[in-house]
């Protein structure tokens, strides 16, 4: 296999031809921050967080999509790089609700973590109104909540829905500030063939796609003296419980007291 | 999704040929959509569903493309396409007043089509004719040095 040698942060490295700068840096333990990148699934150079300085290049390059070249000299943490990343984050944050404290992803958010790592401080760009409002939240699905206000348009959910799950019930719609990741024809998640697999919520770097929070319901069940509570993780909860009670595998469990409504006469 | 195509696109021979030609070819998406836009004046939902099925492109992608490009419209367009330039030169020479008058006369906001589908009114950015600002075009015909008092006379010419 042909190799290419280059210098990253003053360290010489030899990597396979066709590798990206991001992969080459990883090989020598240099961490380039990313936001939209997902190995083998989403390498589109959209978020511009992974920009690096390449000697002789006209502009900063997105490391996740830039192939290495022989003799390349790369700086991953120069003043220009840091300034650019900070500006990018500031622009993303300018259209992002500042409600981290009450967000389901608080302390578990890639945007928040990056902002902290870059010591973001004040956001100089303030939009008179954000692109999306609370009315745009899609909570039609029993499993997944989509909040376009918190979406940073990294397209990780779109990529995983298409390339891993083969569903692609969501994609990017409209353009500019109006851009939204959503099902087609303004439908809600419950209207389309969403399999509720949750992969999108898993890869979302922010709180734009999250699981429905049923914590309150669980507490109420636990506090109910007349209820015996068992725990079973999804998927296929009813099938798993039925099996636990010795029923034929594949049977859907149902409460003994439950009966279909009698037909009305 | 998977809805049965109830449109009359089967009757449109040229579109049929285009669908056949691009069957299973996602790269033909823009060409097919442009042809639908051209023949129907907009992109009816049934046609988009058929496009997704024939070309093997997720409907979400088809809709995404349809809403991304300004050349595509999801609503029927008017018989006459009215474009007002709001580029810098036209703007400072009074295009906003012309816009207000157009919207008043047509009874619609820019970016929309009149109920009777007589006019579609759109705002554009620089037609490259700043010397004759403000510029209005109707179906490609240029009206130079526009002012709000010329509006009603001009739109009366188009039925």
Automatic annotation (TrEMBL), chain B:
Gene3D superfamilies in the record: Glutaredoxin, NADH-quinone oxidoreductase subunit E
Keyword 4Fe-4S attributed: no
Residues in the signal sequence: none
Transmembrane listed as a keyword: no
Pfam families, sorted: 2Fe-2S_thioredx
Cofactor: [2Fe-2S] cluster
InterPro entries noted in UniProt: NADP_DH_HndA-like, NuoE-like, NuoE_dom, NuoE_N, Thioredoxin-like_sf
PROSITE patterns: COMPLEX1_24K
GO molecular function, one term: oxidoreductase activity
Domain of life: Bacteria
Keywords of the record: 2Fe-2S, Iron, Iron-sulfur, Metal-binding
Positions of [2Fe-2S] cluster binding: 85, 90, 126, 130
Comment on bound cofactor: Binds 1 [2Fe-2S] cluster.
Protein family per UniProt: Belongs to the complex I 24 kDa subunit family.
Name used for this protein in its record: NAD(P)H-dependent oxidoreductase subunit E
């Amino acid at each position: 296999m042909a190799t290419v040698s280059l210098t990253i942060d003053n360290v010489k490295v030899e990597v396979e031809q066709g590798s990206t700068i991001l992969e080459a840096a990883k090989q020598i333990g240099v961490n380039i921050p990313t936001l939209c990148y997902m190995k083998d699934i989403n390498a589109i150079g959209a978020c511009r967080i992974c920009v690096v300085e390449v000697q002789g290049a006209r502009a900063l390059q997105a490391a996740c999509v830039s192939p290495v070249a022989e003799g390349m000299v790369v700086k991953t943490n120069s003043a220009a790089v840091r300034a650019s990343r900070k500006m990018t984050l500031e622009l993303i944050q300018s259209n992002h609700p500042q409600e981290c404290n009450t967000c389901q992803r608080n302390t578990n958010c890639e945007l928040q973590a990056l902002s902290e790592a870059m010591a973001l401080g004040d956001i100089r760009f303030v939009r008179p109104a954000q692109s999306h409002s609370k009315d745009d939240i899609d909570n039609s699905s029993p499993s997944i909540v989509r909040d376009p206000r918190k979406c940073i348009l990294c397209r990780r959910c779109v990529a995983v829905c298409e390339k891993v799950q083969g569903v692609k019930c969501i994609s990017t719609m409209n353009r500019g500030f109006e851009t939204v990741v959503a099902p087609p024809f303004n439908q809600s998640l419950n209207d389309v063939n969403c399999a509720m697999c949750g992969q999108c919520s898993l890869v979302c770097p922010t709180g734009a796609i999250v699981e429905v929070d049923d914590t309150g319901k669980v507490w109420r069940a636990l506090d109910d003296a007349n209820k015996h509570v068992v725990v079973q993780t999804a998927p296929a909860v009813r099938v798993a419980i039925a099996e636990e009670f010795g029923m034929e595998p594949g049977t859907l469990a149902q409460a003994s007291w439950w009966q279909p409504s009698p037909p009305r006469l | 999704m998977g809805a049965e195509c109830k449109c009359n696109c089967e009757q449109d021979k040229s579109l049929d040929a285009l669908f056949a030609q691009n069957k299973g070819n996602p790269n033909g998406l823009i060409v097919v959509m442009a042809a639908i836009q051209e023949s129907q004046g907009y992109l009816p939902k049934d046609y988009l569903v058929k496009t997704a099925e024939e070309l093997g492109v997720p409907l979400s992608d088809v809709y995404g493309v349809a809403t991304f490009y300004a050349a595509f419209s999801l609503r029927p367009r008017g018989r006459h396409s009215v474009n007002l330039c709001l580029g810098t030169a036209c703007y400072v020479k009074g295009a906003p007043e012309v816009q207000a008058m157009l919207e008043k006369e047509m009874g619609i906001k820019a970016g929309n089509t009149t109920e009777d589908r007589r006019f579609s009114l759109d705002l554009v950015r620089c037609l490259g004719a700043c010397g004759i600002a403000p510029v209005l075009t109707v179906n490609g015909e240029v009206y130079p040095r526009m002012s709000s008092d010329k509006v009603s006379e001009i739109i009366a010419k188009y039925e």
